[in-house]
Design goal:
This protein is mainly alpha-helical. Helices cover 73% and strands 1% of the residues. It has one domain. The protein is globular. It starts with a helix and ends in a 24-residue tail after the last helix.
């Protein structure tokens, strides 16, 4: 059952600041609940109602859609405050006010999404109570102390957000600025706990720990500290940063495409770069967190892991590989466009490295997307000698996929380093030695990752999982933690040969930012379905059986339709929220000067001559 998975995702925020939101919540809830109550099959039963349904749509599908939309909104609302606060700190320490402006714009997007997140959270809660009262009674009996804590966190988060946003302009000087930054810290502190408390309810359903004795707090704590709680906490924290970064990048990309002045183009070009950088920064760490989560699932219950990775859900991971591959390609492509258009004179220097990086990424993606068992007819299987292709079958196992995923992370990291170094000339006397060391580290690390991947074919699975795969992860982390500070030290004394020019990116850069955001949304919807389906016919795995008419996992085709619908509707919802948030900016822009208007109000097309910059 997927619907009740929404309870786990209930990381909602406080109510909106307008009474209209409350009215909308009550009306929407009433419209959804009343038909279900009137048409429930269990309404004539003598005993307590366990399940209710709604015609045509189905209770599970309705809750699935609402829960997915709420989760995506909550992920954005939880991820944005992190880098908004960091941008404000950078502005405070460096004195560069463009970072403060960027932080304020990020926070404006946050406040615009806040009430909508709460609205979907309220609808989700009412639907769960109405359609799955038996499950909700069981979970409430176990987790009611954490429900009370969640309400308190809700209140603190709401008060802190309003103080942080409405006090922005009033707290810009001296000690008031310090207080404002402290409010930003509290905002993120409460937001993280608002995420991890409901994560306990989510992970309990997949890896329950139940004790029958002890106080209410002891029982709730035992259920909270279940085997997959912390892996989910880390995984979702990173995923929220990725989602927030790429959505902010998409917002900047759309604003860049619609910009009519050079100043706006420069600002939104830079904002798109920051959003893409934040998304890539999280994306580099996300596969490690996902691997840790899957490892814990296997250790808790091997059958659940086999259902995910070796059963009918295994094909989802081929789709996952495609989505992540497109995300890696889109992020690298944006960096490469930045080298070409923002840093004049760098295109010829980096053309060959970019070509080799592209070829390497495509080869890695091809390996990652290779399935272990092919969908083939009887005749095709007979020609192959079985379901496994005699040549490509070796590429369909996890040893190959872990290897290429780590290589893709290394390539993406080096794309960023290459972009970072473009337009600068080393002047430090030890620069040649440092670059030789960094090149050796990268080459040896890549070779080591490949050797461990090939060696993984000849050792038991437990050795590959516990030692080889974790060693590959450690090698990649070592490369990132070593090359990053060395590059920073080199660039500290480097001579700038070409100044960064903002606002000259071609329109396809904005399209790439939008594509990245859509891929992240689809990816989150896909993996939410996979994790929920791993429970098969259990509400709480191995403890509370699902006896409703929906005690089965939806087919991949029908599930994909719902995932695509959720992605499409979420994109429309975010577009509407951002449009409302920018209405004031449009009014101000119409009253301002138009001396720097661009011809026809559109960006320069790709391949065209760069426009003449004003003095």
């Amino acid at each position: 059952m997927h619907g009740e998975d929404g309870l786990k995702e209930r990381t909602s925020y406080g109510a909106g600041r307008h009474g209209a939101w409350l009215v909308s919540l009550l009306v929407a809830t009433g419209c959804m609940v009343l038909p279900a109550i009137g048409l429930a099959a269990e309404s004539t039963a003598a005993g307590p109602t366990e399940y209710r349904d709604i015609p045509y749509i189905g209770s599970r599908n309705l809750i699935w859609i609402v829960a997915q939309l709420h989760l995506l909104l909550a992920g954005f609302v939880l991820g944005v405050p992190i880098f908004a606060w960091l941008c404000e700190i950078i502005a405070w320490k460096s004195g560069e006010q463009r970072y403060d402006k960027l932080a304020k714009e990020f926070t404006k997007l946050l406040t615009s999404s806040y009430a909508t997140t709460a609205l979907f959270g309220g609808i989700l809660l009412f639907l769960l109570i109405v359609f799955y009262p038996k499950l909700m009674n069981y979970l409430t009996d176990i987790f009611f102390p954490s429900f009370l804590l969640y309400c308190l966190l809700f209140l603190f988060e709401t008060a802190t957000l309003y103080l942080y946003w409405y006090g922005w302009d009033a707290m810009q000087e001296g000690g008031k600025k310090t207080l404002h930054i402290f409010l930003g810290f509290l905002l993120n502190f409460f937001a993280i706990f608002i995420m991890i408390v409901p994560n306990a309810w989510a992970t309990f359903q997949s890896s329950p720990v139940v004790i029958s004795e002890g106080t209410a707090i002891e029982r709730a704590w035992a259920a909270t500290w279940n085997p997959t709680w912390w892996p989910i906490n880390i995984h979702r924290l990173i995923a929220n940063v990725v989602l927030g970064g790429y959505i902010c990048g998409a917002y900047a990309g759309v604003r860049y495409l619609a910009a009519k002045t050079a100043a706006d183009r420069e600002h939104y070009d830079w904002m798109g770069y920051v959003g893409n950088f934040i998304g890539v920064f999280g994306l580099l760490a996300l596969p490690f967190a996902g691997y840790w989560l899957m490892r814990e699932i296997y250790q808790y219950n091997q059958q659940m892991g086999i259902t995910l990775m070796g059963g009918f859900l295994s094909w989802l991971f081929i789709i996952q590989a495609m989505l992540i591959g497109v995300l890696f390609l889109g992020s690298n492509y944006y960096f490469w466009l930045g080298i070409t258009y923002r840093i004049p004179g760098s295109e010829s220097q980096y053309r060959k490295p970019i070509l080799w990086m592209l070829i390497s990424l495509l080869l890695c993606l091809a390996v990652w997307m290779t399935p272990h068992s092919l969908v083939a007819s009887i005749e095709e299987a007979q020609k192959m000698g079985g379901a496994h292709h005699p040549l490509l079958g070796v590429l369909g196992v996890m040893s190959a996929k872990m290897t290429v995923s780590n290589l893709m992370i290394l390539i993406t990291f080096m794309s960023f380093v290459m972009y970072w170094r473009a337009g600068k000339q080393d002047t430090a006397p030890w620069a040649r030695l440092a670059k030789a060391v960094m090149g050796a580290i990268l080459a040896l690390a890549s070779i080591a990752v490949i050797i461990l991947g090939v060696w993984g074919y000849f050792v038991p699975a437990i050795v590959r999982i516990n030692y080889f795969s974790t060693s590959q992860v450690a090698i990649v982390i070592f490369v990132i933690l070593t090359i990053t500070p060395l590059t920073a030290l080199l660039l500290k004394s480097a001579k700038t040969t070409t100044e960064m020019v903002w606002g000259r990116m071609p329109p396809r850069a904005g399209y790439a930012l939008v594509l990245n955001a859509v891929m992240v949304i689809l990816l989150m919807a896909l993996m939410g379905y996979a994790r929920s389906s791993s429970r098969v016919h259990w509400h709480v795995y191995g403890v509370m059986r699902d006896t409703s008419p929906y005690a089965y996992s939806p087919a991949l085709g029908s599930a994909s339709l719902i995932m695509v619908f959720c992605t499409f509707f979420f994109c429309l919802l975010v577009a509407f929220i951002f449009w409302v948030a920018t209405m004031g900016d449009k009014a101000k822009g119409a009253q301002g000067a138009v001396k720097r208007d661009l011809p026809h109000g559109i960006p320069a097309m790709a391949g065209g001559a760069p426009e003449r910059r004003e003095a």
